[in-house]
Design a protein that fits this description.
Layout: H1 2-49, H2 55-66, H3 75-88, E1 92-95, E2 98-101, H4 114-123, H5 127-140, H6 144-152, H7 155-158, E3 163-164, H8 166-169, H9 174-181, E4 185-187, H10 198-207, H11 209-216, E5 220-231, E6 234-244, E7 249-259, H12 262-278, E8 285-295, H13 298-305, E9 312-318, H14 334-340
Parallel strand pairs: 4-9, 7-8, 8-9
Antiparallel strand pairs: 1-2, 3-9, 5-6, 6-7
Helix pairs in contact: 1-3, 2-3, 4-6, 12-13
Amino acid sequence: MKQEYVAFIADLKQRIVQSRYMTARLINKEQLLLYFKTGKMLSEKIIAEKWGSKVIEQIATDLQRALPGIKGFSYTSLKNMRQFYETYADAIGVEANGQSVTGQIGQTFWGISFTHHMMLINKCSKLEERLFYIDQAASQYWSVRVLEHQIAAKLYRKRGKLANNFQTTLAGNLKADALEVFQDEYLFDFIAVDETDEKVFENALVKNVKNMILTMGKGFCFIGNQYRLEVGGEEFFVDLLFFNRCLQSLVAFEIKRGKFKPEYAGQLNFYLNVLDEKVRLAHEHASIGIVLCKEKNNTVVEFAVRTIDKAMGVATYRTTREMPAEMRGILPDTGELARLL
């Protein structure tokens, strides 16, 4: 009953959000068209008249005089409109009575804000990558912050790369769907605790459950942490338990603070067997498990999960507290810094 209720609330919320989103999208589409056409006018006029770059600043000033108090047409905004047009000029054709869309651009293009678009233009160099994030952001209603997070997590590059046994354990379309749902690496940039303590880290995730679900991706509903299972009079506890609406499956996450070990697969397989026997509802697909650890060797993972008949994968996680690779060797380590101080 609890799982059905959670799924019902999630579905109701999705419908309400989607309805509000559709209304806002119609307004947003007109605004994007205006910005695109404005950028087109600026770009073509500057090239034709051989105006210098400072002319945009003058245009912004004159617009303010002509339309006192107008918002969204500052010098910076006009520069962004010109960049917006020049970035997508070859992919979008604008007609007198609206827009015609080429095969490269879908309707989701008009479903995200101008701020979303400018972030993608500045952070993603390839059109294919931008289109991927546009589709994801529009269909999942990402805020600008969530979009920025997913770009930082390199979701585009890491999609479909999760080490797993889905090929032999999942049927039909579920294989591809599962690879779309799960990530090879999760960026928990909202965590600021000691990650070496599994319980502390798990509790921090639960306290930030909204951010955690946004990070997890498409269709996740949180059921609970330390989810209790009873087998033969003994108690066992799943670290994090979700239900995924896209896969119609329970999803168990086990958090490990170090490098992946083959015995973790056996432990997770046990949990999945119990979940399918005692918790899963009749209409749901078999449960899926993910080991979430700091490091992994994909070859070791492959051998560990190869003959297991329950669907599982192994992903890693990181936080922004960790020093980027390009900074290592430039800054002193904490011991050296303490000595210097």
